[in-house]
Amino acid sequence: MLAITHADLIMLDQRIPDAVLFIDDGRIKGWGEHWNTEVPKDCEVIDAGGLYVGPGFVDIHCHASNGVRFKHDPTVSVPNTLKHGTTTLLPTLAYADTKEFYLYAIKMLMDFSKTPEGANIGGIYMEGPYLNAGFGSNKAKTAALPWTTGIRKEDYQDLIDLLGDFVRVWAVAPEREGILEFVKDAKKGNPNVRFAVGHSEATPEQIEALIPYGLCIGTHHTNATGTIVKYPECRGVCVDECVNYNSNIYAELIVDKRGIHVDPYMLRLVRKIKGDERIILITDGSYNPGPTPPGYEGVDDIWFDNEGEIGGTKLTSDLVCRNMMKHTGAGFPEAFRMASYNPATAVGFTDRGEIAVGKRADLVMIDDKVNVQAVFLNGKLQKS
Ligand SMILES: [Zn+2]
Known about the structure:
Elements: E1 2-10, E2 15-24, E3 27-33, E4 44-47, E5 52-55, E6 57-62, E7 64-65, E8 68-69, H1 74-83, E9 86-93, H2 99-113, E10 124-127, H3 139-142, H4 153-163, E11 167-172, H5 179-189, E12 194-197, H6 204-208, E13 215-218, H7 239-245, E14 250-254, H8 264-274, E15 279-282, E16 302-304, E17 310-313, H9 317-328, H10 332-346, E18 363-366, E19 372-377, E20 380-381
Parallel strand pairs: 1-4, 1-5, 6-9, 9-10, 10-11, 11-12, 12-13, 13-14, 14-15
Antiparallel strand pairs: 1-2, 2-3, 5-18, 7-8, 16-17, 18-19, 19-20
Helix pairs in contact: 2-4, 4-5, 9-10
Bound molecules: zinc ion.
């Protein structure tokens, strides 16, 4: 058995400032306060020295890390997420790839997840292929992309078959013609799969029609989400309003240092509307080495593509957590709920995401500025 002593435990609804945490066989065995807990003589002991110990981060929406996309090479990029405390990662595939490339990348990531370096991979998040990325300024740019015409079983069924239960989330644009048939078939392929609404300009009615099939996530809420103008000068209702309105839908938030993806005021507003129980912090880590466009000088945690548009982040989950605390005043238990418990729960992991007896001992040890000092995966201290 392993005992982590002098730990400041970050629990779901509590913070225990001087605790002992017991780990056995990769699981959390128990915990107690220092003043009334005895550590058995035969226990291996790691002294946390007063550092915070929380559940490892669960990043469900991330395309790349360390400047490399997972679909191109996961060998360094995936371990880099673990180094930053992400003990469960859903490598995310976006909407611009061909069927042949999807099939290659999915198989490659499935194989990699079975190797020691891929041990923190928990499945795949499919951000596509059936989105509506062509609205607004993106219209011309996305016209040439695959998957933008009809939705056909002969195109998508191979993806569903290969993915099996490895797919945790499919993001869809509910306004796409034929989406319901796809959703039904995807659910047949994996009855536990979740759907997200993303890159969409659907009406609330179109989105709500998919809730009975498992739509429960709003993809990067308030960022690259559509708007509808029904009557000039009157605010329409679209994806953001629907995600805000339906209390069971989780809102993903990209939280960068300056609040560019989501303005700090919007972060606080979403916290107020959704509550800490329905927010998922994501990195949307990516790689797009374009030049920094005017107005963004000094921005060091966001990628820009060659057209000068935002193209994902350089963030890791530790930084997202810190940024959320900074922008909204959330404390450690709240930030960890949004970065660990909520994402785990939203995509169906019941064995992780919190420090509780019987859960996987996926842990991150951090200082008060959320600098990662140590990571445990399945109870094992990882080499840094
Ligand atoms: Zn996206």
